């Protein structure tokens, strides 16, 4: 034992109360007791560490870390000091460092249940499942009657790719609960057990187990879905079909059941479309209100059969005024015949409705709105095919017919956007917004179009109509983790070459994904206690795929493009004489220079854009007032003031290419099918002169799509760059590079 650990009996009793105060979250009381011990034993490491964690929880983080580090130095062999140090790192979400501290703590006390439990949670967060399984196995030895410890060990084995070991653990646990009454937790545990059997590939065993546990399972729908799945895997077609038909009867609006029934009967093949149509017709007769069956009927129907079904579907939707009709029907545009049939039908309806008010020449009269929705459909159809003049004239005709329908203006705005007129598109979208000031969706859509027209201030005011009044709109967008707004604003700032603010917005989106990953930590213990294991495992796996999401990819692309622009632009020597300036003066001078650049950019815009731009002087005054307001906030000691509103911190990076690659690296693992991933990786590698990796990116891109528009130019660029490298290349590597490049022929 360290000499700094010994305490007199009285102080030992006080220290036990200190630990109890921490468990009860009585931080101020615990701090006073810790200070009373330190008056007599100022070098007592464990008390110093406890004082540090109390201070940390009382919003004195810096001082708290100092005391914890001092405590560790004074008693390097104390498991309490190392455990406290780990808790501090965990609170700061520094999980790797926390795990190291827990490892040190376990060196000096292998049997502490609290440390083992915290260590197991940390290893799960870090996805080190083998280590987590070892820690949970030790926990189980100490507390064999604790159900969450059994369950935790099973999950660790499963996530480590050892479902057979997980099954062994669960079987032991189930023996202890076989006589318990049926409840939700036990039901979920049994279904989780069944999923583990499925993961081993033993579908026969999984089916037998499912039949055994069915009376004790509360989620009857999952039982039926699993039974149908296992029966189909085992080739028991008739039994599987009856189960799928039972599921369809309970929920005929779920397209999964219908699609799986078609797959089961082998009717999803091209040469079986007539049989598929017959089956779907029978189902539609049974469940005539099922949109899922109707959509699949249109998918499998052909020629005259398709036309008959399309007529019924389209006319019904036009009578009812269904705005989403085009979104439904364009799924069939991949088939040229179907697309032609749909186009001819809708165009004939417009002609007939204008002439005699019916869909057919001698048909019954239709409601006046039928013509409106026909024109609306055609405008979207022409826009889809980029027949923009026809689309614009058609939507204008629809607006003349009914000038108060919001959807018409939204579509007109989209057409103008595709025509390369972002300012006009934003103005039209604002007209749509003003038709229904209580509609949050159109408000958000208008803000997006304003951002695409680089009217950032107008966009923030517009989105602010639906945000909290007590905070700035942009702050509320961050708090709500509104990815689309931050991404669009980032691209707007990037177009204006305001790289600091652009990176600030893109990195805010990246931080959202950090938060998503960190937010799962509390669920590691919660889900084991509640036994929601199937959902928990799904969550862990989905978190591992999270950065493959299109929103992340879009934000990462924008940020990488900015970093590449920064890497390509040499650091300019500032014309400002900053040597004799204070920090405040430097900031003011840099802001003034930036405003001048923005003003110059606005003056270079086309006249139409210039007329809609806010007066530069007014912008400058507003920004000056904002700076004064921020300074006042700092003086008043108020919290939540953005200390870097211009994003200057991001511009100070010394290696923008490394920062860019941090964003692309997750995409190379999680979104390898996205062409932008490999284009961005290539752009980074060539600037780093990592030629083989650059060529590998091009090779992957060629495998995805040899007709990629940028592929040939990238290959040519790479060949020219390799021929004249800035840094000399080893001849052997040069030969390898040349051979790899020679294979890339497009």
Automatic annotation (TrEMBL):
Keyword flag Repeat: yes
Basic and acidic residues bias: start-end ranges: 594-605, 623-642
InterPro entries: NatA_aux_su, TPR-like_helical_dom_sf, TPR_2, TPR_rpt
Keyword NADP carried by entry: no
Cellular component terms (Gene Ontology): NatA complex
Transmembrane segments: none
Leader sequence residues: none
Residue segments, region Disordered: 574-653
Source taxon at top rank: Eukaryota
Record's compositionally biased regions (Low complexity): 606-619
Keyword annotations: Receptor, Repeat, TPR repeat
Protein name listed in UniProt: NMDA receptor-regulated protein 1-domain-containing protein
């Amino acid at each position: 034992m360290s000499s700094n650990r010994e305490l007199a009996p009285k102080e030992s009793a006080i220290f036990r109360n200190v630990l109890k105060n921490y468990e009860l979250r009585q931080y101020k009381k615990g701090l006073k007791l810790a200070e009373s011990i330190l008056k007599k034993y100022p070098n007592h490491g464990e008390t110093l560490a406890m004082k540090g964690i109390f201070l940390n929880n009382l919003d004195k983080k810096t001082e708290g870390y100092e005391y914890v580090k001092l405590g560790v130095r004074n008693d390097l062999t104390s498991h309490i000091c190392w455990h406290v140090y780990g808790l501090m790192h965990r609170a700061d979400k520094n999980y790797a460092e926390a795990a190291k501290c827990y490892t040190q703590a376990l060196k000096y006390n292998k049997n502490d249940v609290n440390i083992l439990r915290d260590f197991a949670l940390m290893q799960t967060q870090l996805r080190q499942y083998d280590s987590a399984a070892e820690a949970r196995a030790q926990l189980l030895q100490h507390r064999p009657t604790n159900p969450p410890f059994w369950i935790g060990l099973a999950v660790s084995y499963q996530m480590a790719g050892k479902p057979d070991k997980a099954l062994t653990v669960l079987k032991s646990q189930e023996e202890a609960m076989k006589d318990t009454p049926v409840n939700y937790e036990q039901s979920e545990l049994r279904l989780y057990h069944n999923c583990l059997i499925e993961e081993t590939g033993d579908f026969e065993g999984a089916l037998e187990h499912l039949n055994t546990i069915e009376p004790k399972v509360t989620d009857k729908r999952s039982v039926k879905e699993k039974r149908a799945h296992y029966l189909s895997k085992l080739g028991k077609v008739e039994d599987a079909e009856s189960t799928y038909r039972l599921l369809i009867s309970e929920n005929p609006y779920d397209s999964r059941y219908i699609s799986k029934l078609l797959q089961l009967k082998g009717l999803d093949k091209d040469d079986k479309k007539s049989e598929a149509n017959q089956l779907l017709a029978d189902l539609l007769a049974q469940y005539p209100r099922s949109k899922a069956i109707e959509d699949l009927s249109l998918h499998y129907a052909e020629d005259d059969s398709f036309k008959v079904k399309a007529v019924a579907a389209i006319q019904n939707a036009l009578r009812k005024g269904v705005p989403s009709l085009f979104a439904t029907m364009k799924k069939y545009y991949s088939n040229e015949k179907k697309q032609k049939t749909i186009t001819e039908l809708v165009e004939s309806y417009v002609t007939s409705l204008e002439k005699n008010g019916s869909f057919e020449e001698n048909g019954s009269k239709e409601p006046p709105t039928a013509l409106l929705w026909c024109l609306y459909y055609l405008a979207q159809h022409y826009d889809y095919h980029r027949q923009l003049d026809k689309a614009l004239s058609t939507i204008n005709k629809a607006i003349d017919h009914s000038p108060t329908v919001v959807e018409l203006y939204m579509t007109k705005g989209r057409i103008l956007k595709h025509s390369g007129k972002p300012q006009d598109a934003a103005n039209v979208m604002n007209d749509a917004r003003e038709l229904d000031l209580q509609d949050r969706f159109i408000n958000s859509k208008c803000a997006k179009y304003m951002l695409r027209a680089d009217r950032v201030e107008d966009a923030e005011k517009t989105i602010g109509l639906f945000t909290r009044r007590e905070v700035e709109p942009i702050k509320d967008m961050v708090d709500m983790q509104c990815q689309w707004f931050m991404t669009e604003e980032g691209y707007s700032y990037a177009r204006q070459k305001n790289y600091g603010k652009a990176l600030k917005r893109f990195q805010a989106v990246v931080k959202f994904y950090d938060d998503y990953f960190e937010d799962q930590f509390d669920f590691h213990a919660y889900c084991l206690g509640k036994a929601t294991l199937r959902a928990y495992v799904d969550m862990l796996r989905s978190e591992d795929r999270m950065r493959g999401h299109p929103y992340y990819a879009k934000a990462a692309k924008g940020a990488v493009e900015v970093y590449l622009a920064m890497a390509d632009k040499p650091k300019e020597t500032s014309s400002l004489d900053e040597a004799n300036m204070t920090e405040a003066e430097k900031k003011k001078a840099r802001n003034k220079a930036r405003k001048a650049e923005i003003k110059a950019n606005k003056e270079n815009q086309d006249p139409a854009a210039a007329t809609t731009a806010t007066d530069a002087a007014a912008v400058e005054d507003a920004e000056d007032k904002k700076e004064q307001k921020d300074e006042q906030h700092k003086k008043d000691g108020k919290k939540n003031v953005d200390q870097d509103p211009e994003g200057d911190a991001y511009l100070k990076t010394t290696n923008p290419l490394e920062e860019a690659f941090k964003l692309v690296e997750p995409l190379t693992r999680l979104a390898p099918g996205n062409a932008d991933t490999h284009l961005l990786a290539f752009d980074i590698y060539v600037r780093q002169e990592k030629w083989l990796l650059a060529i590998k990116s091009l090779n992957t891109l060629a495998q995805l799509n040899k007709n990629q528009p940028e592929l040939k130019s990238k290959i040519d660029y790479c060949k020219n760059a390799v021929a004249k490298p800035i840094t000399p290349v080893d001849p052997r590597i040069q030969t390898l590079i040349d051979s790899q490049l020679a294979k890339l022929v497009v």
